[in-house]
């Protein structure tokens, strides 16, 4: 007789968590955050409602964890494909080209239906729930903003960007316009707009001849 194997509870838990993450992201994309419920996530994931409540206190917490997991998986796929960096900003020596490349990628990400709904939901819920908002900033927003700080400081060291520029303030000249247009949905968020934002921002940042 084959030896009896004890079920691997950790592997089962990982499968359940992944199923819950995928269900939360899918439901928010399909029906919106307001109509997404713990019961709906549980049914979609094929788990009991109490399983979710054992790991997370609310659907917002589930969505936050799901989004962090999705980001980690995407980064792992980039690494596995042998791509350079981990969503970092390239440093080719041409700041304008590098910023336009990454802002165009940001436009694509914000316009991606799979990411748009959960990102909007987390941003809105973070305003109501300060603890969730702080987690959103710490885990999702700040790491991305730090990439801009690093690239702009490198441009300062190369003598391309003015020495008196604060990179943390300067990055807002690039990010804030895209976020504003995306949040309000007043005008299309396009590559051409991203390029224009870079052009206007650099007029104030670069060392003038």
Walkthrough of the structure:
With 209 residues, the protein is mainly alpha-helical. The chain has 2 domains: 9-81, Tetracycline Repressor, domain 2 (Orthogonal Bundle); 87-209, Tetracycline Repressor, domain 2 (Orthogonal Bundle). The protein contains 9 helices and no strands.
Categorize the overall geometry. Answer: elongated
Unreliable parts: 81-86
* Beta-strand content: under 5%
Radius of gyration: 21 Å
Mean residue pLDDT: 86
Structural class computed from helices and strand pairing: mainly alpha
Into which percent range does the helicity of residues fall? over 70%
Biggest sheet details: none
CATH H-level superfamily title of the largest domain: Tetracycline Repressor, domain 2
Structural domain count: 2
Oligomer, anyone? single chain
Terminal-residue CA separation: 83 Å
Protein name: TetR/AcrR family transcriptional regulator
Keywords: DNA-binding, Transcription, Transcription regulation
Domain HTH tetR-type: 14-74
DNA-binding region: 37-56
């Amino acid at each position: 007789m084959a030896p009896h194997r004890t079920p691997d509870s950790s592997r089962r838990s990982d499968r359940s968590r992944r199923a819950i993450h995928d269900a939360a992201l899918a439901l928010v994309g399909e029906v919106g955050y307001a109509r997404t419920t713990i019961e709906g996530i549980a049914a979609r994931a094929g788990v009991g409602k109490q399983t979710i409540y054992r790991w997370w206190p609310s659907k917002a917490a589930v969505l936050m964890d799901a989004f962090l997991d999705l980001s980690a998986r995407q980064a792992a796929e980039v690494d596995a494909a042998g791509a350079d960096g981990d969503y970092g900003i390239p440093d080719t020596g041409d700041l304008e080209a590098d910023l336009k490349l990454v802002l165009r990628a940001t436009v694509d990400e914000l316009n991606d239906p799979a990411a748009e709904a959960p990102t909007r939901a987390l941003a809105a819920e973070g305003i109501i729930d300060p603890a969730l908002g702080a987690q959103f900033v710490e885990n999702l927003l700040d790491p991305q903003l730090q990439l801009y700080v690093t690239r702009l400081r490198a441009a300062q060291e190369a003598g391309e960007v003015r020495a008196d520029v604060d990179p943390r303030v300067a990055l807002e000249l690039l990010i804030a316009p895209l976020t504003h247009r995306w949040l309000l949905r007043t005008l299309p968020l396009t590559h051409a707009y991203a390029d224009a934002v870079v052009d206007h921002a650099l007029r104030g940042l670069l060392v003038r001849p």
